[in-house]
Protein 1
Amino acid sequence: MSDRIAVIEGDGIGQEVIPAAVEVLQALDREFTFVSGAAGDAVRAETGQALPTETYELAAEADATLFGAAGETAADVILPLRDAVDSFVNVRPARAYPGVDALRPETDVVFLRENTEGVYAGHEDRLSDDLSTLTRVVTSSASRELAEYACEFVADGRGPAGREAVTVVHKANVMRETDGRFRETALEVADAHGVDADEELMDAFATKLPLDPTQYGVIVCPNLAGDVLSDLAAGLVGGLGLLPSANVGHDNALFEPVHGTAPDIAGEGVANPTAAILSAAMLLEYLGYTADGQRVRAAVETVLADGPRTGDLGGDATTEAVTTAILGAL
Ligand code: NAI
Ligand code: MG
């Protein structure tokens, strides 16, 4: 049976790196059906809606979705798209690769970020000319589901090799009620599953991770902390052009590079397609094409090691040249 893959390029370099990732998927001998949907700033300017209902439904009904990035409308696009695929966890691996000049070449971590609540639950209010407030939402059920996913992830050997412990990152010393619940639930679940777990306060973690990333493997964190700390990890491994991610739901998933639309380089054809292509590799693995996913990863690693490289990695190659090299290595 052919898998139906929704493709939503979005704005800026989304329109450059997602076609590269689709080319890689098409180069594999699989019967994928690609269906494309529009979303983002340009669509809002035209239609008034950043995420047209048709695009939401396309993602909801597909077997998996590949998404690029949206500009100013990012929150209006990605938050509902995560909802369309019923996603409860955002998986963000950050790994340094041979050949890439990384601040911390020994980095090999995976962030498992809570994907539905925390401060991104959308409860913000302007109460007066002077006062705005935000309600932070933390439930035991979402915390438990995330922690259970983390335990399965470790049990399945999907974490970084040799770093099987789970680190629960939180700020429960200050946000005693919300992060207290998150911390307690995550540690309880790990204990019940017999998974080694430790914990770090998120501010201390932001110092300890760059000082010695080898202390960490699978990192479980609330929504905002996962957003910020995974970008920090991107800085350790050579930049945002390298980091893929998966928004995993119960029966659906959406894959996207961690980066945004990169307005500073958009339209020049020089964006690094690696993050998008590694997102496609995660999509392949999610759909059960494990060997294909590993082939794509290996091809990407060959090109990262031998070149050509885009400007963010110190080279001067175009997106197209890097994609052609990856296709060649495949
Ligand atoms: P960004 O990730 O777009 O860019 C940050 C820096 O990294 C820029 O210097 C950019 O050139 C570089 N960069 C990012 N991806 C790259 C790639 N593949 N190759 C080479 N260089 C790359 O983040 P920024 O500048 O904070 O946001 C720009 C726009 O993107 C904003 O409108 C923001 O709302 C949106 N955004 C959307 C996201 C999404 O749709 N999921 C996520 C993050 C930002
Ligand atoms: Mg982000």
Protein 2
Amino acid sequence: MMLKVNAHTRICGIIGDPVEHSLSPEMHNAAFHARGLNYVYVAFRVPASRLGAAVAAIRHLDLVGVNVTIPHKETVLAHLDEVSEEARLTGAVNTVVRRDDRLIGYNTDGEGFLQALRAAGFVPAGRSALLLGAGGAARAVAVALARAGAASIAVANRTPARAERLAAWLADRLGVAARAVPWPGRDGARAGREALERADLVVHATPLGTYPDTSTGPDLAYECLRPGQLVFDLVYNPPETAFLARARAAGAGAVSGLEMLIHQGALAFELWTDQSPPLDTMRAALREALL
Ligand code: NAP
């Protein structure tokens, strides 16, 4: 793909440390090209000590905006003029938009997750969910599910205290029926296995199964999965994980983290360009980058 960069080119990017592994440049540059936009998207490695200066540069260099990744998703909030409701609730920003001199922070992870769910035909209102993991991604997903009217959210995590904290926070702040459950492993406690069996939606939100350790998915009582459930793996590399393959084999529906990555990127694209995102182009660019 030829990108024509000239004196009119508008600049977007991603700030993080590390950022070399990011697939967002491929996805967004393909999208800009498909829409005939004179935009370019680049990766900026920004160590924690330079976050303030890097955010100031968005204003000074007239950038359109940036995505924000590890380790800045939480700390960037203090440097912004305004944050969206989702970003405030999750305590994390993954997209910054410059509007004149103001920097506005959004979190498109949760809404990207919901769009991927809806595209798979799953409506979260009134349904039960089990989250496997209690980190930043699990929190963004939980907030999105609660706001979309999920009936209940169970949280299981390697470190149980973190699952308890997240569940208590969800119940207290968002009024959703949330509880911590034991990890539903092969030899796990019955309460965890029951939560796995009963959930309409099971979301895996740990890095287990990510390239290069692709053979080691989470330790789960896979025999509890069943037809009628939807299983969502936030891991996107590889797009088809061992976890998803086992869920499919048990008759459950399965959605790849690649779909969430596409939809969170699509929402950022819309915020930066006011144009509809070319989803198929973005998906193809990511798949090619992952080959
Ligand atoms: P995080 O905040 O660091 O949380 C990591 C979570 O994984 C914690 O619950 C942690 O449990 C658990 N964990 C880590 N290593 C584990 C292990 N060896 N065994 C069991 N549990 C383990 O990370 P995050 O930002 O939430 O990201 C989680 C995953 O989601 C990553 O793979 C990330 O790439 C993916 N993600 C995907 C998208 C997408 O668009 N598809 C978006 C965001 C994130 P403890 O609390 O016990 O440490």
